């Protein structure tokens, strides 16, 4: 992996963000909402509105407004929320932190559950365990988040009363309560991921176990267990990294719904609130931050993949 | 008996429900001090500036942080708040309020008559866009006579001023802040209320702590209050049932049954003048034709509507915003559905083949959609083809409310008949969403406002209600009982029929309450 | 064609998928005729009934028959999802094939742009588009189609690239055929099989996305009996009757499972591995 490659990937992230910023800006420009009216309220006088429009540069040509906005974004200034009157960037970054926490826990839970499931299914291919895992994973990928979320709330929060149904408590404020509030959202988000990734691990592992390379290892006299954990698993898990990275996009979409249902004030919920209130600067910032997260996650996955891949070759 | 008196009605409704309205709460001994109360609300607290708040959770927070000149008791009469006493001229056009001595804002600066004058001048300034402007009565001029005396000069005689000055948005803010720009109050609170702001996260929670400099040395009893936002009403009820929260501001009828069954929870219910209505844009086709509005009103099966929309926790409406919870309610014959007559009226209005319309209902509270879909089905046989469109509440507030010509509204009970009429239905109403602009109605309301004689006033309001009953500027099919809940360790809380007054400074926690940070 | 069908029936996924999707399509076509009641008819005295001989799946908050609503709602739910996927696939396939045909810098530019758009989560993109166009089932369809197009473009391109290296494409280029002819007549037909597999799986996603949009109040409007909307509405009443939320949730899941199974079965049948 050469520095040139990394540089190229970074440039590509830049291009991605440029395209996303154009799309998002275009959409928010067409959305029917008068920024000046929204900021001053409905009872504002025409004079005040005109003055604010001038001040906000709303009379400039669109491309100038875009460049002006982009210039701000590059400096980390996403403008001021029309809803709260506060700078957008700090609120969004804080929200992103909460979403990442949710994503992190979900990915950890996913890895802890999905990989063993995938291994069991692959090793016992065609037997009851395989069919069981397969059955569960079909259900997992086929339940939309809002259905899963509703069901876990109904069962775990309302009937059994084990956990609080919604809300968010920062871990720094009260770690125990904070974790309790995270359990249901994490369960919901990781459900689809577990289903998806366990299937991937299974099919990769099945392929690897049938490869010549593994047969050769078996012929060398290595035990089944040694082959599985020393050789097969490493090769099978490698593509999983890419899958997880690609799933980040799905994760981010799912997070929108999950945060809305569980009232978790992450970036997804901020975006929904912003979209409902037509708070254009917040929509722009939220969408751009989501796209950046996705692009960076994929970049890191590629780097990790290349790095691990090289190690395996030389092993 | 032409009408039931408000007090009797409230007492009756309390007896009926067998709950709530503990009357004089049972704390014979003095309330315990200290502790943290967790209150849940069902919407974000977006606006902190008390002059422009507009939804219940915002009113709740504003009430904790700020004070008015007067405050509203549970029987809808005024009691002293910052003003310790008041007098009026014989012709009811000049009112003098005397402030308590030694009032201070949270920062420590004194609160004087000058702050009161500046606040009301800001409220009367259209640029502030405060809903209080149209709701505090015919105030023409406010002046400070000395440090603690404020004189209100009215443009017309008005008997309800002490009550209207308790209006939710008429909270006193420092003159210095008004001078420097009210934006300052978007993120911080500088009030004279029983609590001080600790933290403010609009979508999640607002935390307030005891104001030791509050004018009443005995209150508040609590050390801290956490106002928690639950966008999901079902989760909100679950949180109360599990003991995670102590008090729930309001809950929909669909959740109330769970609260009644839960142990350790007291379900609170109180008849009120809160209602959902279907607003017509009376200045636009087809609803500018009174026959069309009457026709639609005739399709409504009001008893079924009470079931569909309130799950039985409510009472049928008659298309006027006053029900027996109001003092000047007029007892008009209950409206009944009559599809044949509705059809005839529609044909007469020029729609023999029926009529299409899109009815907009926001998603919060859920009763709005519930009402819209039920109306759609009920109106179908008469030839109305109604398309229901739902939208997020925030979008509705920005795009439809006060602008649309056919949508579902939802309103709290107001303190007086005048308040609800001039909030929604007169030509110069703060939220004149129906644009009914009926001169005869305006005249009746403004005449009643300046009439001191109770019987005469009652007659004028009866006439006004009859006009609405006949002309239907909006359909009011059902009134809601207020539904809420609390843990049994919460003491001194009483549901307020106004629906947006909480008086949490009178609340304390019992000995069995959980200890919290 | 028959061969593929046979192979599909031999694998458990394929067979099960065929059965489920077949049943669903049957409901889509004839369901409304078998509905025992009017799906919008209210009955104030029959609210929140559990399943019984009279109402097989129970009744909802207006006393409407849930079974009849599900049978009527199948069209809105399934047909729109299929249409959205088909539209998204069409757009994506054209972009992908053209990109593969052009190759070189144009290919690079198109694909990088497609990648960029893909970095906006589908749900978010759909949310923005529906807000832009105004909410209705049709706009939700367009939004989902647009959200799917980049992904389909990527899949099509990779398939088309391998097709492009084939002799018959080179022959057509040598013959001096127009680009439109080559893309439309020679390349597209040959990328169809893998795309159909991808498409089938995406229908499952589309059903879920549609339901999610309705759930967020941006798709179908009440009193429509679109299944996602039914779940969304039933959430408010889940403590009065859990049946109301259970049945439409199961229906959404069943459709998604059916198309997922069918897609996997198709892939195995079209691409037989040892």
UniProtKB/TrEMBL annotation, chain A:
GO CC, alphabetical: plasma membrane
UniProt-listed InterPro entries: BPD_transp_1_N, MetI-like, MetI-like_sf
Membrane topology reported for the UniProt record: Multi-pass membrane protein
Keyword Cell membrane: yes
Subcellular location: Cell membrane
Listed transmembrane segments: 12-31, 100-123, 135-162, 182-201, 236-258, 287-308
Predominant location category: membrane
Key words of the record: Cell membrane, Membrane, Transmembrane, Transmembrane helix, Transport
Superkingdom, taxonomy of origin: Bacteria
Domain ABC transmembrane type-1 intervals: 96-301
A GO MF label: dipeptide transmembrane transporter activity
PROSITE patterns: ABC_TM1
Family membership: Belongs to the binding-protein-dependent transport system permease family.
Protein name (database record): ABC transporter permease
Organism: Bosea spartocytisi
TrEMBL record, chain C:
Official protein name in the record: ABC transporter permease
Subcellular location: Cell membrane
TM helices/strands, residue ranges: 15-35, 78-102, 114-134, 203-220, 240-263
PROSITE patterns: ABC_TM1
Membrane topology value: Multi-pass membrane protein
Entry-linked InterPro entries: BP-dependent_transpt_permease (IPR050366), MetI-like (IPR000515), MetI-like_sf (IPR035906), OppC_N (IPR025966)
GO annotation terms (biological process): transmembrane transport
Family note: Belongs to the binding-protein-dependent transport system permease family.
Keyword Transmembrane: yes
Organism: Bosea spartocytisi
Cellular compartments per GO CC: plasma membrane
Sorted UniProt keywords: Cell membrane, Membrane, Transmembrane, Transmembrane helix, Transport
Predominant location: membrane
A Pfam match: OppC_N
Stretches assigned to the ABC transmembrane type-1 domain: 74-263
């Amino acid at each position: 992996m050469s520095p040139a490659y990394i540089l190229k990937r970074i440039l590509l992230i830049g291009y991605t963000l440029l395209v996303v910023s154009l799309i998002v800006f275009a959409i928010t420009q067409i959305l029917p909402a008068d920024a000046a009216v929204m900021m001053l309220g409905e009872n504002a006088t025409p004079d005040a509105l005109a003055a604010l429009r001038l001040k906000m540069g709303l009379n400039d040509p669109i491309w100038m407004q875009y460049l002006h906005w982009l210039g701000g974004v590059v400096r980390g200034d996403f403008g001021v929320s029309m809803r709260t009157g506060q700078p957008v960037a700090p609120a969004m970054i804080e929200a992103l932190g909460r979403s990442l926490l949710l994503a992190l826990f979900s990915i950890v839970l996913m890895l802890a559950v999905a990989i063993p499931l995938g291994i069991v299914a692959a090793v016992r291919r065609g037997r009851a365990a395989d069919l069981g895992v397969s059955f569960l994973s079909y259900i997992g990928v086929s339940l939309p988040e809002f259905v899963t979320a509703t069901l876990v709330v109904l069962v775990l929060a309302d009937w059994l009363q084990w956990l609080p149904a919604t809300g968010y408590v920062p871990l720094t404020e009260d770690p125990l309560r904070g974790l309790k509030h995270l359990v249901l959202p994490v369960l919901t988000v990781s459900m689809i991921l577990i289903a998806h990734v366990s299937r991937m691990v299974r099919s990769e592992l099945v392929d690897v176990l049938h490869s010549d390379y593994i047969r050769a290892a078996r012929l060398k006299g290595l035990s089944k267990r040694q082959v599985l954990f020393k050789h097969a698993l490493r090769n099978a898990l490698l593509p999983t990294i890419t899958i997880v990275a690609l799933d980040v996009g799905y994760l981010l979409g799912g997070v929108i719904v999950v945060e809305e249902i569980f009232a978790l004030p992450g970036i997804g919920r901020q975006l929904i609130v912003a979209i409902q209130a037509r708070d254009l600067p917040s929509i722009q910032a939220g969408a751009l931050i989501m796209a950046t997260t996705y692009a960076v996650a994929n970049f890191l996955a590629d780097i990790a993949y290349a790095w691990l891949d090289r190690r395996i070759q030389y092993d | 008996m032409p009408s039931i008196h408000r007090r009797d009605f409230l007492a009756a409704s309390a007896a009926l429900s067998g709950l709530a309205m503990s009357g004089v709460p049972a704390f014979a001994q003095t309330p315990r001090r200290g502790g943290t109360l967790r209150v849940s609300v069902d919407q974000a607290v977006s606006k902190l500036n008390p002059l422009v708040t507009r939804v219940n959770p915002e009113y709740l927070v504003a009430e904790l942080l700020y004070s008015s000149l007067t405050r509203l008791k549970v029987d809808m009469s005024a009691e002293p708040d910052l003003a310790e006493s008041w007098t009026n001229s014989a012709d009811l056009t000049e009112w003098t309020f005397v402030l308590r001595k030694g009032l201070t804002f949270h920062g420590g600066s004194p609160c004087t008559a000058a702050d009161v004058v500046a606040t009301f001048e800001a409220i009367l300034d259209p640029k502030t866009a405060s809903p209080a402007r149209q709701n505090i009565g015919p105030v023409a001029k406010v002046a400070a006579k000395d440090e603690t005396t404020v004189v209100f000069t009215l443009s017309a005689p008005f008997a309800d001023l002490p009550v209207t000055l308790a209006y939710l948005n008429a909270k006193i803010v420092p003159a210095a802040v008004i001078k420097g720009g009210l934006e300052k109050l978007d993120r911080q609170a500088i009030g004279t209320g029983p609590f001080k702001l600790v933290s403010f996260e609009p979508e999640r929670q607002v935390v307030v702590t005891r104001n030791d400099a509050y004018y009443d040395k005995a209150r508040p009893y609590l050390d801290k209050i956490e106002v928690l936002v639950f966008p999901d009403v079902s989760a909100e009820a679950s949180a109360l049932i599990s003991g995670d929260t102590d008090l729930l501001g309001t809950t929909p009828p669909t959740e109330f049954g769970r609260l009644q069954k839960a142990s350790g929870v007291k379900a609170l219910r109180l008849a009120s003048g809160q209602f959902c209505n279907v607003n017509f844009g009376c200045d636009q086709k087809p609803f500018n034709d009174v026959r069309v509005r009457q026709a639609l009103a005739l399709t409504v099966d009001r008893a079924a509507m009470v079931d569909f929309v309130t799950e039985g926790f409510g009472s049928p409406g008659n298309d006027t915003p006053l029900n027996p919870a109001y003092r000047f309610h007029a007892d008009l014959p209950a409206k009944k559905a009559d599809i044949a007559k509705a059809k005839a009226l529609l044909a007469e209005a020029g729609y023999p083949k029926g009529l299409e319309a899109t009815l907009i209902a926001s998603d919060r509270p859920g009763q709005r959609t519930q009402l819209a879909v039920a109306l759609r089905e009920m109106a179908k046989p008469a030839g109305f083809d109604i398309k229901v469109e739902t939208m997020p509440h925030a979008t509705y507030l920005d795009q439809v409310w006060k602008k649309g010509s056919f949508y579902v509204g939802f309103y709290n009970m107001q303190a007086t008949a005048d308040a609800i009429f001039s909030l929604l239905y007169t030509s110069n109403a703060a939220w004149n969403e129906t644009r009914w602009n009926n001169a005869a109605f305006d005249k009746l309301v403004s005449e009643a406002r300046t009439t001191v004689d109770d019987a005469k006033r009652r007659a004028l309001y009866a006439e006004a209600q009859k006009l609405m009953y006949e002309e239907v500027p909006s359909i009011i099919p059902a009134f809601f009982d207020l539904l809420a809940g609390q843990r049994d360790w919460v003491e001194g809380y009483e549901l307020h029929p106004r629906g947006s007054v909480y008086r949490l400074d009178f609340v304390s926690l019992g000995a069995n309450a959980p200890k919290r940070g | 064609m028959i061969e593929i069908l046979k192979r599909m029936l031999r694998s458990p996924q394929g067979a099960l998928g065929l059965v489920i999707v077949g049943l669903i399509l049957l409901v889509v076509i004839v369901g409304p005729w078998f509905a025992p009641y009017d799906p919008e008819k209210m009955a104030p005295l029959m609210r929140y009934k559990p399943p019984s001989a009279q109402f097989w799946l129970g009744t909802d908050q207006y006393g409407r028959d849930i079974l009849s609503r599900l049978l009527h709602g199948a069209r809105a739910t399934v047909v729109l999802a299929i249409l959205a996927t088909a539209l998204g696939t069409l757009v994506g396939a054209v972009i992908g094939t053209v990109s593969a045909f052009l190759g070189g810098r144009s290919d690079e530019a198109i694909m990088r742009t497609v990648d960029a758009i893909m970095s906006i989560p589908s749900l978010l993109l759909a949310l923005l588009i529906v807000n832009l166009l105004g909410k209705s089932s049709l706009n939700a369809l367009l939004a989902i189609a647009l959200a799917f197009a980049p992904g389909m473009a990527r899949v099509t391109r990779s398939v088309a690239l391998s097709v492009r290296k084939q002799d018959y494409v080179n022959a057509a280029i040598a013959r001096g055929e127009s680009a439109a002819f080559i893309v439309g007549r020679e390349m597209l037909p040959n990328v169809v099989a893998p795309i159909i597999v991808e498409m089938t799986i995406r229908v499952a996603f589309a059903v879920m996305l549609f339901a999610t949009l309705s759930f967020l109040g941006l798709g179908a409007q009440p009193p429509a009996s679109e299944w996602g909307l039914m779940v969304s509405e039933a959430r408010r009443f889940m403590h009065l009757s859990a049946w109301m939320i259970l049945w439409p949730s199961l229906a959404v899941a069943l459709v998604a499972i059916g198309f997922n199974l069918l897609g996997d079965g198709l892939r195995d049948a079209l691409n037989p591995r040892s």
